[in-house]
Design a protein that fits this description.
The chain is α/β, with parallel strands linked by helices. It has 3 domains: about 80 residues, Orthogonal Bundle (Arc Repressor Mutant, subunit A), CATH 1.10.10.10; about 100 residues, Periplasmic binding protein-like II (D-Maltodextrin-Binding Protein, domain 2); about 100 residues, D-Maltodextrin-Binding Protein, domain 2 (3-Layer(aba) Sandwich). Helix content is about 45%, strand content about 25%. The strands form 2 sheets. Strands 3, 4, 5, 6, 7, 8, 9, 10 and 11 form a 9-stranded mixed beta sheet that branches. A two-stranded antiparallel sheet has the order 1-2. The radius of gyration is 32 Å and the shape is rod-shaped.
Length: about 300
């Protein structure tokens, strides 16, 4: 970014020899002389003089040297920062709550990268933590249930996903098109208190005049994988997004129970900062993600 002659000047400051400077920079000695003359003409001052056949910096030369070294350091920093920013712009940082299906979203993310959408970093956390990261600019996009839409951010609809009821094959065989209250004799498998997944389930039950306490017992676990294993072992009834249980159903570990008075579809949204500089590539990303999401469920 600096005048290339500044590099010649700083090298001459070190070598105090036009011949050595020419060798170090792989240029001719007359070129070194011309570079110094150009700078002296530009700044209207003498930069070097000889004392007893030794090349010395003048007062003006010392001043230029100090500031030229600082400018060189600053120039290098600017180049480094711009390169880093350029790399960060290629990386899309996507947050997703685990209850939506870590495996499903990971597969979609891989397909997005193969389709040419650049590098995507996927972060799996609980929804409130993801939104805090988004607010702190630690994430570019967060996929959430629409009930967690935050007025601080822009939102883009992704689509819907069923929120359904699951059980292991043996337990599920006892229930065909049953009513919700018929399931109350079983334990309820739950995420830990305070998590977004637990909150969504409790809201769904409350809307139907039911509560976690309506079930015979409550068993909590910290992840969907644990809950899935408990359910497949016949330990109880599990409410979950279909996107997170699709693999378990395909592997015949779980069965989705048809309940006549429980049909729930949850709307999903992408949330992002209004000031996010990546918004230019978001529309194409949203369109492709929506397509892959609809195909995955």
């Amino acid at each position: 970014m600096l005048d290339f002659r500044i590099a010649t000047f700083l090298t001459l400051c070190e070598t105090r020899s036009y011949t050595q400077t020419a060798k170090m920079l792989n240029i001719t000695q007359p070129s070194v002389t011309q570079h110094i003359k150009h700078l002296q003409k530009k700044y209207h001052c003498i930069l070097f003089h000889y004392e007893s056949k030794t090349l010395r910096l003048t007062q003006a030369g010392e001043y230029l040297r100090a500031h030229a070294e600082e400018m060189t350091r600053m120039s290098a920093k600017i180049v480094s920062d711009l390169q880093r920013i350029g790399q960060e712009e290629e990386l899309l940082r996507l947050g997703c709550p685990g209850e939506l299906g870590e495996t499903a979203v990971t597969r979609i993310t891989a397909k997005m990268m193969k389709a040419g959408f650049g590098k995507i970093s996927l972060v799996i956390r609980d929804t409130p933590e993801l939104l805090a990261m988004l607010n702190n600019s630690d994430l570019d996009l967060v996929l959430t249930d629409a009930c967690y839409q935050d007025s601080r951010f822009q939102a883009e609809s992704v689509g819907e996903v069923p929120f359904a009821i699951y059980a292991g094959m043996e337990l599920a065989a006892k229930y065909h098109h049953c009513k919700l209250e018929e399931l109350f004799v079983n334990p309820l498998l739950l995420q830990n208190p305070g998590t977004s997944a637990r909150g969504i389930l409790e809201n769904c039950l409350t809307e139907r005049d039911a509560f976690p306490e309506s079930f015979a017992d409550k068993i909590t676990a910290g992840s969907d994988n644990c809950l899935c294993e408990l359910a497949s072992s016949g330990m109880g009834i599990l409410f979950a997004y279909r996107s997170s249980m699709k693999d378990a159903v395909d592997q015949e570990k779980l069965v989705e129970i048809a309940v006549s008075d429980f049909s729930e579809k949850r709307s999903l949204v992408f949330q992002y900062k209004r000031t996010n500089q990546e918004q230019g590539r978001f529309p194409a990303f949203f369109e492709k993600f929506r397509k892959l999401w609809s195909e995955s469920i």
